[in-house]
Design brief:
By secondary structure, the protein is mostly helical. The protein folds into two domains: 69 residues, Multidrug-efflux Transporter Regulator, Chain: A, Domain 2, CATH 1.10.1660; 50 residues, no CATH class. 65% of the residues lie in helices and 0% in strands. The chain has seven helices and no strands. The termini are far apart.
Length: 149
């Protein structure tokens, strides 16, 4: 017989909070569980596996919407590995864009740190001045080809 758990045990086994499980149920990532006569939800091993799938996909940067699409691909007959590959390839492109953006941010911060004279007064701090004018910095960043979100 398959192991069943109450929501607290499922949360512990998956390494998530109870609120996370309820949130995933509301979003349709997890199916509504059967209930005992007492009204308590009971969860099987398949729900634990699905939770682990969701957590692993999140670790790889997939959004909940994208995870829902991946889960749907698994459930629909006639879908191929190519469908999943296309989504993973798109995710790689997203990650590469974020890496470019982070490198740009790092260069901007390095420039600000280089302009900063250690030991100066707060009123003459180029880093604080740049942050006061962050909107201008964001516009320059966007024009440099890196999307600012």
């Amino acid at each position: 017989m398959a192991q069943t758990r109450f929501i607290g045990g499922l949360a512990k086994a998956a390494g998530v909070r109870v609120a996370t499980i309820r949130f995933y149920e509301r979003k349709g990532l997890l199916p509504a569980p059967p209930r005992r006569a007492s009204g308590y939800r009971i969860y099987g091993e398949e729900t634990l596996q699905r939770l682990r799938f969701i957590q692993r996909a999140k670790t790889l940067g997939f959004s909940l919407r994208e995870i829902q699409e991946l889960l749907a691909l698994r459930a629909v007959s006639g879908r191929t590995c190519l469908d999943v590959r296309e989504r993973a390839t798109h995710k790689i492109q997203d990650v590469e864009g974020k890496i470019r953006q982070l490198r740009h941010f790092r260069r901007a911060l390095q420039l600000l740190v280089a302009q900063c004279e250690a030991g100066g007064t707060q009123g003459d701090c180029p880093i604080l001045d740049a942050l006061d004018h962050f909107r201008a910095l964001s516009v320059r960043t966007a024009r440099a080809g890196s999307p600012v979100r």
